[in-house]
Amino acid sequence: MKKLVIFLLMVVIAGLTGCSVEQIGNSSGVGVMFNGEPAIFDSSVVYMGTVVGRVLSREWGNGVTRVSIALDGQYEALKKNSLAVVVKNGRMHLTLLSGYGDPLPPGRCISGFENTASYRWFKFRHLINNVTMSADRRAQHLLARSGLAG
Q1: Distance between CA 39 and CA 59 in Å, rounded?
Q2: Model confidence at 90: pLDDT above 80
Q3: Of 28, 31, 29, nearest in space to 139 by CA
Q4: Which of 7, 50, 126, 127 is the most buried if burial means most Cβ atoms within 10 Å?
Q5: Residue 19: inside a domain
Q6: What total of structural domains would you count in the chain?
Q7: CA–CA separation, 146 vs 68, rounded Å?
Q8: pTM given for the model
């Protein structure tokens, strides 16, 4: 009984001081689909030189890697279908394919590129077409190929 009272007292004190337990399976995460295995060494996610989030998890299947990222609260507005990720120097960098975009539906993935050259080549190939729609189709194709959907 004494141990239970001490445990409850510690939980109350932790709650009053603002301590919280962060959930690992954050449902607000965004799936980033890579064709192959990206060389990611840092768990932070960067946008325009500012750390805006972190890597939650990493899954691999059928030659495709799915990396789940979580964006900090003030950067939630970046979750659009025009968002892509480019890996530079082992760190994930967010980039916008166009200046506008629709909010990303729940469970939808975005395209990730293993390096700057693959990103530039993708943009060059889809110069005439809508690059945002092409990136969305690419991400959904990689998701289906990976077998990680669900």
Answers
A1: 13
A2: yes
A3: 31
A4: 126
A5: no
A6: 1
A7: 14
A8: 0.70
